[in-house]
């Protein structure tokens, strides 16, 4: 479904990774691993088309994401490690604003079901600025649940979540996988997923290769 071919990334004149290739099949969960500064976020931004790789290409269903942009962005959703929640909008309005970026128009009832699922059932009219960091993160969980995307790209999705929030994120990933969806993620925290996961290890530039491991 998704393929990275011979990617190379340079930041501040420092080679982070090169000759990096891996694939993501349907219903596959892939973790990007590596120490701080190894290029995990940079790789995710390249995957999403938000950053240009110095070399290599990213394919979606066999075509470059540049040439296949419309289909790719209709099927991929990216969540960064900083929540993009607007303080002056209510919880419901924030979810609707995020859905607008995907040209999705859902009813209030559909959004409220998702908010209930992520533990924000009574917060639909609460402004974003009144929420905790964890509650803001839960708005993003509601959004990805409603996004209708086949591929989730998640940068540090457990940030600011409490124990219950972490369990919720893990269960959502498993549900998405069981429905045929795929997930690529990074995390500094332990992710306890009851399924097989693949991984890509960064930080091995000296070996001129970062290998995907099953």
- CATH topology label: Rossmann fold
For the record, the count of structural domains works out to 1
* Relative helix content: 25-40%
What topology, given as strand order, has the largest sheet? 6-7-8-3-9-10
Short description:
By secondary structure, the chain is α/β, with parallel strands linked by helices. Helix content is 30%, strand content 25%. The longest helix has 16 residues, at 163-178.
Would you mind describing this structure in some detail?
This protein has 214 residues and is α/β, with parallel strands linked by helices. The protein has a single domain (2-213), classed as 3-Layer(aba) Sandwich (Rossmann fold). The protein is 30% helix and 25% strand. The chain contains six helices and ten strands, in the order βββαββαβαααβαβββ. It has helices spanning 40-47, 69-75, 91-100, 108-117, 133-146, 163-178, and strands at 2-11, 14-24, 29-33, 55-60, 63-64, 76-79, 151-155, 182-186, 198-201, 212-213. A six-stranded mixed β-sheet has the order 6-7-8-3-9-10, sandwiched between helices. It has a four-stranded antiparallel β-sheet with strand order 2-1-4-5, covered by helices on one side. Helix 3 packs across helix 5 (133-146) and helix 4 (108-117) crosses helix 5 (133-146). The longest helix is centred in the last third of the chain and has 16 residues, at 163-178. It is globular and about 50 Å long. The model is unreliable at 206-214 (pLDDT under 50).
